[in-house]
Amino acid sequence: MSASAAGKSVYDVIVVGAGSMGMSAGYYLAASGVRTLLIDAYDPPHREGSHHGEPRLIRHAYSGGETYIKLALRAQQLWEEAEELTGVKLLERSGVLNIADPERYSYRGRAGDAEQLGVVTELLSAAEIRHRWAGLTLSDPFEAMYEPNAGYLYSEQCVAAYRTLALAHGAELIVNTPVQGITAREESVTVHTAQGDYHAGSAILSAGAWFNTLAPFVQLPIRSVRKVVGWFETKGETFDAGRFPGFTLGSSHGGFYGFPNIGGAGLKIGRHDGGVSWQPGETAAPFGEYAEDEGDLRVALEAFMPSAAGRLLRSAVCKYELTPDEGFIIDHHPEHPHVYIAGGFSGHGFKFSSAVGELLSGLVQGMKPDAADISPFSLARFTTSASPASHT
Ligand SMILES: Cc1cc2nc3c(=O)[nH]c(=O)nc-3n(C[C@H](O)[C@H](O)[C@H](O)COP(=O)(O)OP(=O)(O)OC[C@H]3O[C@@H](n4cnc5c(N)ncnc54)[C@H](O)[C@@H]3O)c2cc1C
Q1: Alpha-carbon distance values, 296 to 301, 346, 370, 380 (Å)
Q2: Residue 31 to residues 25, 74, 146, 258, 360: CA-CA distances in angstroms?
């Protein structure tokens, strides 16, 4: 990394997109003494990307293999560290209950793989689930994998915490400034905005659902999708935080995830599959524009947790950025090895963002990752890989 490449770089690293991944990277860079500039199109945390409408689940028994499991475990350690450093509550260890119809999906193999890496899991029958969480009206053949050490993260607080930490370590942040283009030379990068150009030795691009606004410099195989979540009134205390865990639920009605009733906000539920495509720059239709926004969520509540199917108390519209295999892209730019790309977090990336920030900070400083082998995140696994750079 050249701090003064071309004789005019002011920064060592520019991070384009200071959301979940970028803000965390900004902290780990600045804390390592790297002169860091973060640029964001909005003022993070904000409601235009993928991180609002907290909370977000953090689970460790992942299906993508050892890399994902190790990264999730590292992420949880780093969330705990960030809590200590900021004194802000970021993580609730509520436990996470992963429920599925075994004819559609079984957690048995996944639990075994995760346990070898130290993740504690319990396999439960429908009767055991009902006995422990009376609000769930599941019958055979449903079963579940429960992770007692998993939980959920206050995602907006997390982004705000990394912002505080990054700035405290000397990172600079420019907000409400969309990046309009990027030019890379052998040892330097110039980032173009309406306010002017910024120069650095290297860059990290972490633009979430808006990634394709960075084309043609980089074009990822991602599809941005409008997603909705709702908070529903619950009866009694069965679903209250402290009693009820975070959950995922795979059924013939779709794949759902949710959270207990935190402080009377209602039980939050979202659907992982489905959603309509969204193009950067479009206004995402408000909740309720499509009948299925509320309808899909209610169907799952009525089928599996009827006493949480009360009034809709609150709703949010957010965005996923899906890769074809729903795995992440963390790699260097195919033409410019000093430019790193972190995108395509496919609706399940938030939990990892602490560890992804640490990883990106190390990669851009030329360190070999030690938390995990990152080859599963390679951009080259997609046939429609990044377009050859046409410098703008
Ligand atoms: C409804 C919903 C529920 C989810 N639930 C979970 C969950 O339970 N657990 C989990 O782990 N994950 C979950 N996720 C996924 C997770 O939130 C995302 O994977 C994660 O937030 C993606 O982080 P990011 O940094 O890529 O995007 P963001 O956090 O959106 O950050 C991208 C940033 O780039 C900025 N930007 C974009 N373009 C430009 C530009 N041209 N110039 C300057 N700045 C730019 C944006 O303003 C934004 O701040 C969920 C997502 C949604 C939408």
Answers
A1: 9, 20, 42, 36
A2: 10, 18, 36, 34, 13
Cα(166)–Cα(163) distance, rounded to whole angstroms? 5
pLDDT in tens, 274-328: 999 999 999 999 999 999 999 999 999 999 999 999 999 999 999 999 999 999 9
Mean pLDDT of the region 178-187: 96
pLDDT number for residue 370: 62
Please enumerate, as own/partner, the contacts of 162-165 that have beta carbons within 8 Å and a separation of 24 or more.
162/23, 162/24, 162/26, 162/27, 162/82, 162/354, 162/357, 163/18, 163/23, 163/26, 163/44, 163/45, 164/86, 165/27, 165/30, 165/31, 165/82, 165/85, 165/86
- CA 179 remoteness from chain centre: 21
* Backbone phi, psi, residue 185, to 5°: -115, -175
Residue nearest to atom 28 of ligand 1 (CA): 19
CA distance 97 to 75: 19
Residues with CB under 6 A from ligand 1: 16-22, 39-42, 44, 48-51, 53, 56-57, 178-179, 206-208, 210, 213-214, 227, 229, 257, 270, 318-320, 343, 345, 347-351
Q: What are phi and psi of 352, to 5 degrees?
A: -85, -5
pTM (two decimals)? 0.95
Run of H or E residues at 124: strand 122-125
Mutate which of 210, 278, 297, 317 for ligand 1 pocket (most atoms within 8 A of beta carbon): 210
Please tell me the distance from the alpha carbon of residue 361 to that of residue 344, in angstroms, as a whole number: 18
Structural domains in the chain, CATH included, are 5-50+156-219+325-381 (3.50.50.60), 96-148+224-322 (3.30.9.10)
Shortest CA distance to 135 belongs to which of 15, 214, 274, 232?
232
Residue 301: both structure tokens together? 């509540």
Strands 267-271 and 223-232, by their bridges, are: antiparallel
Closest CA to 282 of 226, 239, 243: 226
Q: Cα separations (Å) of 201 from 185, 189, 192, 301? A: 9, 6, 15, 51
Looking at residue 338, its amino acid is H
Q: For residues 36 and 25, give the distance between their C-alpha atoms in angstroms, rounded to a whole number.
A: 10
**Tokens linked to 19:** 């959301």
Question: What are the tens digits of pLDDT across the range 38-96?
Answer: 999 999 999 999 999 999 999 999 987 899 999 999 999 999 999 999 999 999 999 99
